Amino acid sequence: VAAYSKTLSWRSTQRRQLIDITNDILDFVRESRIRHGICQVSVPHATAAILVNENESGLTRDFLEKMEALFPTQGPYRHNAIDDNADSHLAAGFIGHARTFPVVDGSLVRGRWQNIFLVELDGPRARRDVVLQLIGEQ
Ligand code: ZN
Predict the structure, then answer these.
(1) What is the pLDDT of residues 12-33, one digit of tens each?
(2) Residue 103 to residue 33: CA distance in whole angstroms
(3) Residues surrounding ion ligand 1 at CB below 5 Å
(4) How far is the CA of 84 from the centre of ligand 1 (A)?
(5) Which of 40, 55, 93, 123 would give a disulfide with 115, using CB separation of 3.0 to 4.6 Å?
(6) Could you give the strand order of the β-sheet that contains 17-20, starting from the edge strand earlier in sequence?
(7) CB 16 within 8 A of CB 123
(8) 104 Cα: distance to centroid of ligand 1 (angstroms)
(9) Residue 29 to residue 108: CA distance in whole angstroms
């Protein structure tokens, strides 16, 4: 069994933002030289998440508007007594911090409309990390 890991970083410019990281993950899979295995994409943050869906400008706005509808920026949040970002934690918790994909014949297996996004929920931030790990056989 082989393992290959890497941490990539992005800067965010909005409080809530979808950053398409698909191409960087495809590069990571290629350079790993692992042919068959599992690729995990994970964020080590409590107010960021990983989302998989279509990168279409109307739809990415729909996602951001749905996040505001489900997790309004302002609300009667207990966490805001010590911080000002309860909505960010809640959205991150429900979207999830990681996604996994099969790697078959050296390629990440995903649907044509499945792009991979780093979701900023409490930006802007100078640095958001995404930890990539691929485990399998070469
Ligand atoms: Zn907080």
Answers:
(1) 999 999 999 999 999 999 999 9
(2) 11
(3) 83, 85
(4) 6
(5) 55
(6) 17-20, 115-120, 48-53
(7) yes
(8) 39
(9) 7
